[in-house]
Design brief:
The chain is an all-alpha fold. 75% of the residues lie in helices and 0% in strands. The longest helix is centred in the middle third of the chain and has 15 residues.
């Protein structure tokens, strides 16, 4: 199964929020 760009975007967003 391919990970959609939206899913990747969500994960990146989550990481940025966690580091903020």
């Amino acid at each position: 199964m391919e990970t959609s760009e939206i899913e990747i975007r969500k994960m990146v967003d989550q990481t940025l929020l966690a580091k903020a």
